[in-house]
From TrEMBL:
UniProt keyword list: Glycolysis, Lyase
UniProt lineage: Bacteria, Pseudomonadati, Pseudomonadota, Gammaproteobacteria, Lysobacterales
Known catalytic reactions: beta-D-fructose 1,6-bisphosphate = D-glyceraldehyde 3-phosphate + dihydroxyacetone phosphate
Entry protein name: Fructose-bisphosphate aldolase
Molecular function, one GO term: fructose-bisphosphate aldolase activity
Example GO BP: glycolytic process
Keyword Lyase among UniProt keywords: yes
E.C. numbers: 4.1.2.13
Species for this entry: Marilutibacter spongiae
């Protein structure tokens, strides 16, 4: 796989006015989401729900690709079309979550490291054959009393860089996701500092592991006050802090940055992205790779009648995609 092909895929992922829908919840996480709305977490319900999302009419107007979970990339529509083919036929790039989740970091209470490097080369080879053209690995950085430690940040950055190098070797664009978690009573300045140190460590590790930035996408968290801090930051404050933090840490050669929603409300996630793009021009396209902020409204609607509410739920997915697509251009307004 040439760097040109990786770069082409990366640029297509952040094409103007388009972003990613994250539907890569593990079976444990989707069970939590289904439990929340009273849906039984069976394999068929998971399949039907992912079909609803991926088959949303005209989704590719605003969606360049979707991140799938291992089970999902092996599933098909009710009519027998593999999801990866359905996506490719509709002009969307299949992606795959390849990390194996977070585990306690030995010797560092309250901190976690993401696992999944063992056997990764062979798994990536298979995912490429199944149609995936990009992959995602999520690291989790918690903020609390005396955490994060430098050890935790560096261990996660090292794993992200090892994963990214393997992805590129196998022809997949790595989406590197170091998520600084919103939970906690920290202020916005603390989130800024932690995000800055995390990104510095990540890009140093990517460099050390010979990762080609031209074929890499960053999935970033926004700079926000902790959810239990009692602090309120304006949309402009969040946008300005996030942009400044990214500009001081992320090389301009990166083809694009997409954001996670991380538990923000649907509207806040959209408004923050829109504000950052209005503050441009920026060194890279800024778009979205939202999970909850793309799906919550649709899941709620679908759960009320899973046989009948498919079209209605798809209409809300399309609306969320449209709002975020406009925000990726800095052209969203509340009424839009
Ligand atoms: P959220 O947008 O719900 O945070 O999910 C995005 C994601 O893929 C987290 O890894």
């Amino acid at each position: 796989m040439s760097i040109e092909q990786l770069a082409e895929t990366a640029l297509a992922m952040v094409a103007p006015g388009k972003g990613i829908i994250a539907i890569d919840e593990s079976n444990a996480t989707i069970k939590k989401r289904f439990d929340g709305v009273g849906i039984e977490c069976t394999e068929e319900n998971r399949r039907a729900y992912r079909e609803l999302l991926l088959a949303t009419p005209k989704l590719s107007d605003y969606i360049s690709g979707a991140i799938l979970f291992d089970e999902t990339i092996r599933q098909s529509t009710r009519d027998g079309v593999p999801f990866a083919k359905l996506m490719a036929d509709n002009g969307m790039i299949p992606g795959i979550k390849v990390d194996k989740g977070t585990h306690a970091l030995a010797g560092f209470p309250g901190e976690v490291v993401t696992e999944g490097l063992d056997g990764l080369r062979a798994r990536l080879e298979e995912y490429y054959k199944l149609g995936a053209r990009f992959a995602k690995w999520r690291a989790v950085i918690n903020i609390g009393d005396d955490i994060p430690s430098g050890t935790c940040i560096d261990a996660n950055a090292h794993a992200l860089a090892r994963y990214a190098a393997l992805c590129q070797e196998q022809g997949l664009v790595p989406m590197v996701e170091p998520e600084v978690i919103m939970d906690g009573n920290h202020d916005i300045d603390t989130c800024y500092e932690v995000t800055e140190v995390t990104l510095r460590s990540l890009f140093a590790s990517l460099y050390e592991q010979n990762v080609m930035l031209e074929g890499t996408i960053l999935k970033a968290s926004m700079v926000l006050p902790g959810t239990t801090s009692g602090d309120d930051a304006s949309v402009e404050e969040v946008a300005a802090a996030t942009l400044q933090c990214l500009k001081s840490t992320v090389p301009a050669t990166l083809p694009g940055i997409v954001f996670l929603s991380g538990g923000q409300s649907d509207e806040a996630a959209t408004a923050h992205l829109d504000a950052m793009n209005r503050m441009g021009p920026n060194p890279w396209p800024l778009s979205f790779s939202y999970g909850r902020a793309m799906q919550s409204a649709a899941l709620k609607l679908w759960s009320q009648d899973i046989a009948r509410n498919v079209a209605e739920a798809q209409a809300t997915v399309y609306e969320r995609a449209r709002a975020n697509g406009l925000a990726a251009l800095g052209e969203w307004s509340k009424a839009a």
